[in-house]
Specification:
By secondary structure, this protein is an alpha/beta fold. Among the domains are: 127 residues, NAD(P)-binding Rossmann-like Domain (Rossmann fold), CATH 3.40.50.720; 146 residues, Rossmann fold (3-Layer(aba) Sandwich), CATH 3.40.50.261; 146 residues, Rossmann fold (3-Layer(aba) Sandwich), CATH 3.40.50; 173 residues, 3-Layer(aba) Sandwich (Aminopeptidase), CATH 3.40.630.30. 36% of the residues lie in helices and 24% in strands. The protein contains 26 helices and 40 strands. The strands form 7 sheets. Strands 21, 22, 27, 28, 29, 30, 31 and 32 form an 8-stranded mixed β-sheet that branches. The longest helix has 21 residues. The radius of gyration is 32 Å and the shape is globular.
Length: 858
């Protein structure tokens, strides 16, 4: 694929410092000194109209005087000069610039964005501390602390947090592959940096500190792609700021992308320690060796509290344990297969000095032939006597911690990352039938909008909920106690009587719901009491009568709350909790949901006790509730007019889910449409086609539920054809490989499957073509595979034409692919479709390229 536009930021060949200064107190001097101290091998070009040389380096009066266009410029001037300087750099052909100045107005930020579009210059900042790329000897920052090379990247919006992390890392001898301060990110954002770092072979893990998030969709897409290959940990602040959205929605987004969230700087420091030194975790079983039961018990308590797995009872080798005792206990574990990770704990002791023991164990582990199979963590407890031992472990590449709890918390970060990745690759079950009547829902929503009914109570929302496939209880509107009594007599007891008022959002505030009324006298009394309480509580409130509703036939079930609402950052969200809980206390999920994702939301709510199961004859049916969540997700996707839907409560009795009360808020689509944070299944790309034998196929995007059918499809492809597709001998594909093929991000990858629609191949996958694009859409790599027993029917041509049309509509610059010289069928087909063919006989490959964007963009 073509290189990213950020390459000149990450791999500059020359660096200019605009506003360089001889004054040691100014950023322009500090940055020059840091660049020179960092051993950057390319030219460093100070720009200053006041000095002929800065720190012994020839200076230039202005940007036009520079002998070459710098790849990277660090702008150290006052805010008022920045716009003019960025324009001059853009005209000169500079690839990227870092803006240190702060306090830009909204208008100035907009002008900066216009300059990036006009000249193609990429901007980091404003209000950036700069960046450090230690492996390249680049310290393009005003941080007082340098960084050593390492394998962890750190991205931050806060200069204060950045310098704190650098200071801590220096003390612990930890390094970074990249250390970048985004500042106010008017151009370069988290998503673009994640795309770049995901392809960086040096970076093994990524840490993020964020205050706020822009372009949630791009961020989640980039984060999910990166997190499949390397851990990403997030520290999010500003949890209580009103304009930043619900914090539980951030939790949901971070989980959905496969990242992990840490709650404070202590966890973040532990994460840096772990990710800098740990191996890929092969399992979750932790074994503990300790010279004291108390510290071991503290570790076990934290492990079980976090849902971890103890491999075996802790090995307490006693307070008088010496070096030989530790080595013997460690060897017993290394020789076996009962654990995946080992925590070594040492309390200060006369028989085994901490420093000598650390040095001995480091040598022992490095020489042990099986040590690389295990993650080994250390906790040298204490402060004065343990400090040198911890330093030795850190220098030797062993994760080391001050307390047993922090060691276990760090281990659980690795476990939770592993679990999250496995969960995200679980194959979802297919939904049970098409319960959503889209046509009827659309008609009912349109009618409500035409009548200017933007807020619908239980009675008005009832037909829409039924059309959405949800079970509801019918309601009757009455005006007073007499009508309530007559209605109750007609529908049968027991009944519920509820207030109907557009001005009182929470009926509980006036005790506006009375349940289990079994006689006419109880109904009349309840109706009068509700109306009296409203008049006393809010005399000006509009009262539109009362609702009478038959009580649900079954008792003993859970009363839940499901709420659909718009989040200011992530768009539509689905919240789940017990009846009576507030949105910020509920378990959040982002649509679109499938059965697997809905199941995780429910299990998460149960584990965190946001839903507390009570003793009842029938336990909560997770699959049935998951079906409801999926139906609501589909409703949200289909109708952007839905601003809020509150099912409160929904009664869950075993597999029976009944909506007892609801409210629905609508807005016309042009006002209410909110961009989804995750692109849903693109139904609009489905199309029918006919093969040469007149059989019908459906060309459609692949879905996660296709994994079983996709596995059978690959088995129908001959060994020779699989070799031509994968450039290797490929046997039966495992779940992980199939999940990666079927669970795709439609924003950056597309795979079309051809599904038979009649005859012996009905509902079978007959072929697949896919294209994976660069983040900037400059290029997409394609690959195609067709069942070997269906060649000659024109299926390959149909699918290639489909992917070419898609690439042009998407605005992709070019399609490129690779095959073998022996694959004459593919080569001839590519030629007929206009691909440029380049045969590399020495390498045994054929490159195929087709320009797309110039021939029509979406």
């Amino acid at each position: 694929m073509k290189p990213s536009g950020l390459d000149r930021l990450f791999k500059p060949q020359s660096i200019a410092v605009i506003g360089a200064s001889t004054d040691p107190q100014k950023a322009g001097h500090v940055v020059i000194r840091h660049l020179l101290a960092g051993q950057f091998k390319g030219p460093i070009l100070p720009v200053s109209p006041h000095s002929k040389a800065i720190a012994g380096v020839l200076a230039y009066a202005d940007i036009d005087s520079l002998p070459l266009a710098p790849d990277l410029a660090i702008v150290c001037t006052r805010r008022e000069r920045v716009l003019t300087l960025i324009e001059a750099l853009g005209k000169r052909g500079t690839g990227a610039a870092i803006i240190l100045a702060a306090d830009f107005t909204a208008s100035e930020r907009e002008q900066l964005q216009q300059l990036t579009q006009q000249y193609g210059i990429r901007l980091l900042g404003p209000n950036s501390m700069g960046m450090l790329l230690p492996g390249q000897g680049i310290n393009a920052s005003f941080s007082p602390i340098a960084a050593k090379p390492g394998q962890v990247a750190f991205l931050s919006q806060s200069a204060a947090v950045s310098t704190t992390i650098l200071d801590w890392a220096k003390q612990h001898e930890l390094g970074f592959s990249a250390f970048i301060s985004l500042g106010d990110h008017c151009d370069i954002n988290f998503g673009q940096l994640l795309d770049q770092l995901s392809r960086d072979s040096v970076t093994r893990a990524i840490l993020l500190y964020m205050d706020k998030l822009q372009d949630a969709r791009h961020f989640l897409s980039a984060a999910r792609a990166a997190a499949r290959n390397k851990p990403i940990l997030v520290l999010k602040s500003g949890r209580h700021e009103p304009d930043s959205g619900l914090d539980n929605v951030y939790d949901a987004a971070i989980r959905r992308a496969g990242m992990l969230r840490v709650r404070d700087t202590h966890e973040l420091f532990a994460a840096v320690e772990t990710l800098s030194h740990s191996l890929t975790l092969k399992g979750e079983r932790l074994a503990i060796i300790s010279n004291g039961r108390g510290l071991a018990n503290m570790a076990i308590d934290k492990l079980l509290e976090r849902g971890g797995k103890l491999a075996m009872p802790p090995r307490d080798i006693g307070s008088d344990a010496d070096i030989n005792d530790y080595q013997q206990a460690l060897d017993d574990l290394l020789q076996g297969d009962e654990a995946d990770a080992i925590l070594l704990i040492h309390a200060p002791s006369l028989t085994a000095r901490g420093t000598a023991l650390a040095r001995s164990l480091i040598d022992y582990v490095k020489q042990h032939p099986r040590a690389r199979r295990f993650n080994i963590l250390t906790n040298w407890a204490g402060e004065y006597s343990a400090q040198e031992g911890r330093r030795l472990f850190s220098e030797a590449g062993f994760p080391t911690y001050r307390t047993p709890e922090s060691a276990v918390a760090a281990f659980m970060h690795m476990v939770e990352y592993r679990r999250n990745q496995k969960q995200l690759m679980e194959t979802p079950a297919s939904l049970q039938g098409d319960r959503l009547n889209l046509e009827l829902c659309q008609q009912l929503i349109r009618q409500a909008l035409e009548r200017k009914q933007l807020t619908l109570d239980t009675h008005l929302a009832h037909p829409i909920l039924q059309a959405a496939g949800l079970s509801t209880l019918p309601t009757w509107i009455v005006s007073d106690a007499i009508e309530a009594t007559l209605t109750a007599e007609q529908i049968g007891y027991p009944v519920a009587v509820k207030l109907r008022s557009p001005d009182i959002l929470h009926k509980s505030a006036v005790h506006g719901v009375m349940l289990n009324l079994r006689t006419s006298a109880e109904v009349a009394q309840a109706a009068d009491a509700i109306l009296d309480r409203v008049r006393q509580h809010d005399p000006g409130a509009r009262i539109e009568g009362l609702l009478v509703q038959r009580m649900a036939r079954r008792s003993g079930g859970l009363e839940l709350r499901i709420r659909l609402q718009q989040d200011p950052v992530f768009g539509p969200v689905i919240l789940l909790g017990e009846s009576g809980t507030e949105p910020q206390e509920m378990m959040a999920a982002l649509p679109p949901l499938n059965q697997a994702l809905a199941r995780y939301q429910i299990i998460g709510a149960l584990k965190s006790r946001k839903i507390r199961e009570q003793a009842s004859p029938e336990r909560l049916d997770i699959d049935a509730l998951g079906q409801v969540l999926c139906q609501l997700s589909e409703l949200l996707l289909a109708f952007p007019e839905i601003q809020q839907l509150d099912l409160h409560p929904l009664q869950a009795c075993g597999a029976e889910m009944v909506v007892l009360d609801a409210s629905l808020t609508l807005q016309p689509a042009e006002e209410g449409r909110c961009r989804l944070a995750i692109r849903p299944y693109p139904t609009e790309l489905e199309e029918g086609a006919r093969l040469k034998d007149q059989s019908h196929v459906l060309l459609r995007p692949i879905r996660p539920e296709d994994e079983p059918a996709h596995k059978q499809f690959v088995l129908k492809v001959s060994d020779e054809d699989r070799y031509k597709r994968f450039f290797a001998d490929v046997g039966e594909l495992g779940h992980e490989e199939l999940a990666r093929m079927t669970q795709i991000d439609y924003d950056r990858e597309m795979a079309f499957v051809a599904v038979g629609q009649d005859g012996p191949f009905d509902q079978q996958i007959l072929g697949v073509v896919r294209a994976i694009s660069n983040p900037d859409l400059s290029d997409a790599e394609f690959a195609i595979l067709v069942r070997s027993d269906l060649k000659g029917l024109g299926l390959g041509k149909l699918m290639m034409e489909k992917i070419v049309r898609y690439a042009r509509e998407r605005g992709i610059g070019q399609l490129s692919g690779m095959t073998m010289p022996s694959n004459r069928g593919m080569i001839n087909l590519a030629k007929r479709l206009g691909f440029k063919i380049d045969i590399q006989l020495e390498d045994g490959v054929v490159n195929m390229e087709l320009p797309c964007a110039s021939q029509g963009q979406a």
